[in-house]
Amino acid sequence: MIADFSSRKVQEDGIIKEKNGFFFLLPFKIRPECSIFMKTISPDSRTFPKNRHAMKYAILSDIHANLEALETVLARCHELGVDSYLSLGDIVGYNANPHECLEIMRSLPVAAFVKGNHDEYASNGDTVMAGFNPHAKSAVLWTQETLSDEEHVFLASLPYKMQVRGTPFTAVHASLDSPADWGYIFDVHQAMDNFSYQYTQICFCGHSHVPIAYCKKMLARPGELPVDELKLWASKPDEEGMMFHSDEADEIVLPVQPGCKYLINVGSVGQPRNRDPRASFAVYDDEQRTITRYRLPYDIAGTQEKIRAAGLPECLATRLEHGL
Length: 324
Ligand SMILES: [Fe+2]
Description:
Helix content is 27%, strand content 20%. It folds into 2 domains: 7-41, no CATH class; 56-322, 4-Layer Sandwich (Purple Acid Phosphatase, chain A, domain 2), CATH 3.60.21. By secondary structure, the protein is of the alpha/beta class. The strands form 4 sheets. The chain has a 6-stranded mixed sheet. A 6-stranded mixed sheet has the order 6-7-8-14-9-10, with helices on one face. Strands 1-2 form a two-stranded antiparallel ribbon. It contains 9 helices and 16 strands. Bound molecules: fe (ii) ion. Fe (ii) ion (FE2) binds next to loops.
């Protein structure tokens, strides 16, 4: 049984009332704004002070130095009244505006920056980049040369994962079970490994550039896995093994249910790979308790022109229009 210790349910006389009618009697008087106490006992419930205003968080991942996509996404975030941002890593790599994208992201009210694999290789001087294809590698080498020393230090200093204070979020680029090994999450078994290390209600991740969502139930029936892929955001592989979405909706709203934990891949702002070339990102609304996934068209031709002008591999330009 999980009690809802949200501040609205904390009584001045020290009694906490649970949704299903159960009461917990505490031996001392606690204050509704005592969020540190509530955070300790209730990692997956709302932990905000009573007088705190509702917040909207935009979650952006894999921007990959694509200025046109980033500006389009941020304009929409402004219209939506976003208050704060989570940056899930790979701000740089592949495309031609790493400095500009870093400058913009660092100017925003960002509650969490975590490091992606391209951020790591662009800042640690690694020239081998095990596992990278030659095109990705050549873009990282170009990025290493392009960034300033201060930007190298900033990227190198980022953590692999972060529990975001005052929110029900954990942010990670790849996965919580081995964040520095850059593994991918594409199925419920990989999602279960991640949930083993997830102490908040929601974990946002990126890395695969494919939006996908999983829910861990409180109880699973015999023979049932405790984790489901959420059909609302479901993607599936085509005959070549590429992931794609059948749903082309501009917005898909996922209600956050009490008693469930969520692992949400928000897709990529700057290099989507599920055969939908539109920029992908998500917004968490803590008043509505929803996570909305957005897809937005942007000026792909403008980004391609810059890739070519910078002398980056041609395939990095062409893949953008195909969402690969
Ligand atoms: Fe990436």
